[in-house]
Structure formats: structure tokens, C-alpha cells
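During the reporting period, our protein records have gained a C-alpha cell line. One record among many is quoted in full directly below:
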Amino acid sequence: MDKLLARSRHLAVFLFGGVLSAAVDIGVMQMLLHAGLHFSAATTAGFMTGLLVNYAWHSRVTFDAAATPSSFARYLCVVALNYTLTLGCVALAQSLAGMPLAGKILSLPLISVNSYLLGKFWIFKQQGNRFDDDSPT
């Protein structure tokens, strides 16, 4: 029971980090739009800021791992994979139902699970990680 509670708490921390980074992304974008920056530059700045917040949160809080150049490179690979999965879902929903937003919404749980599993077992995998299956919780 304690292990289940710890895993649930860990998943909640992961999801909170995603919501936090999305809020930062949108907040920076809106702030820059309000300041008169072109929408493409504001969108890019928001995305990049959210991406950095997401990486920092998950490395330090979710997975309790050191931020390193190699883990950041792996993180960027997962971002690219998730982007590709999202585009695939959007294209599929567009071709089947003419509803790209449905594909975007359906992609969210897929990329969340993908991000969590790859974060735990690849990006931030380390010896003695407090969230490894073999460690006591």
C-alpha cells in the first residue's frame, strides 16, 4: 500500500510539472504578445521557456536526478518523439474526421505516458534512483 501511495504521489508530481511548464509557456507567450512582440517570436520564447522549466522540474523534483548535458540531450530526443507522435495523431484525426483538435487532445495522454516512462527509465535513469522498482518506498 505504501508503494502504491508513493507511486501515485510521484505521478502527481510529474503531472504537476507538466501543468507548471504549460502555464509558464502560455504566460511568457501572452506577456510578450502584450508587449508587442510578433506572435511567432512570442510563441517560440514561451515554448523554449516552458521546455526549460519542464526539464528542470523533472530532473530536480520528479526524478531527483542531476541535470547533465547527456540527460538534456535525451530529453530533447523525447520532445522530438512526442512532437512526431502529436503530429501523427493530429493528421490521423484530420484525415478520419476533419478534426485536428481531437487528435491533439487524444495525443496528450499518449505523450504524457511516453514522457513519464522515458523520463524514469531513460532520461533520468540513475543508480539508486529513489523511484526505481527495486528501491524501498
